Amino acid sequence: MFIDEIKIYARAGHGGKGCVAFMREAYRPKGGPSGGNGGDGGNVILEASHDLNNLIAQYYQPRLIAQKGEAGLGKGMDGKTGKDLIVKVPCGTSVWKLPVAPAEPLISEEGEIESDASPRLTNSGAGRPLIRNAGAIQAVEMDLTLEEPLAGRRARDKGDLVVDLTEHGQRFVLCKGGRGGLGNRNFATARRQTPRFAQPGEQGEEGEYLLELRIMADVGLVGYPNAGKSTLLTAISAARPKVAPYPFTTLHPQIGIVEYPDFHRLTVCDVPGLIEGAHQNVGLGHAFLRHIQRCKILVLLLDMAGTDNRAPWEDYHNLRKELELYDPAMLERPQLVVANKMDEPAAPENLRKFKRRIRKTPVLPISAAFNEGVDQFSNAIRQEVEKANARLQD
User: Is the CB of residue 232 less than 8 Å from the CB of residue 340?
Assistant: First the structure.
């Protein structure tokens, strides 16, 4: 199971309370206050790791709660600090703070709206009035529309970006633990020598967050459904995605590692096929397009045989249009146009028409199913990635 977006609840540990105690020992019957301080609460820390490729761990454990600090003890002994909760996430994980919505208005028995200023965490769509009396239903205009899909609500109410974890080993304190309370020995003065009070521990930070993974790969494969992206990934790497002769065989992004004889390696991301309107989230376009935002180069894979009764040059224009409407910066990335399924009878003629219509755009013809031109493709993407790395260093 591939999980690339998950909502979590995180809470740091609360600080331990201070102790109220007095020294009572032999020969020191009134030794004075000796209450220790409470320990600090543990932090919730996110750590980026390149050993992970999805957020499935947070899917099964969406509540991240750090350890509390222990309370102070007598004889001046401080409480133990709570243990930090370190959560590893894949490199490329963005963390968004979900907004806190106001409380839902309540309808009293007289039909009046009661105000409730206590906030609540957003768990669903817009708040709706809660009816205490069935007779007050006529006085309230009810919203009977169906709730929006979860992806649509997140696109609108994603909140503020907290951090973007992109490097291996990068850490970020998501929620800071509460400070431990001071024991009564800290409040003794010349005029108040036996304080009988201590501080309570502070509450740890908490909140709801959205973890969103954007895969960090060198090469992104972009194309229409059934264009042969999974077949190409199988031919150049050890990845074995599902391959079948029907659209939308790939339902989630696949990562493949391309290895070269000199031990050089590249990562290639195969996203599910894009369709018209993907920039408006048609066919879950947003869930797929975001995974190629971090790719250094893009490969536009075209079905040159037109097996689905589409013209390859129209596919080329539509793919570029969807990329531009989703993020104009994506068209500035280096692109490699690849003509697949050249083993089909109609492919050579379509390739000639494509070159006449799309001028000054180099096209690399291949047949991934029969391993024709795959070596040239591997060398081409390596050269483009090296050029992209050189530009980034400059």
Answer: yes
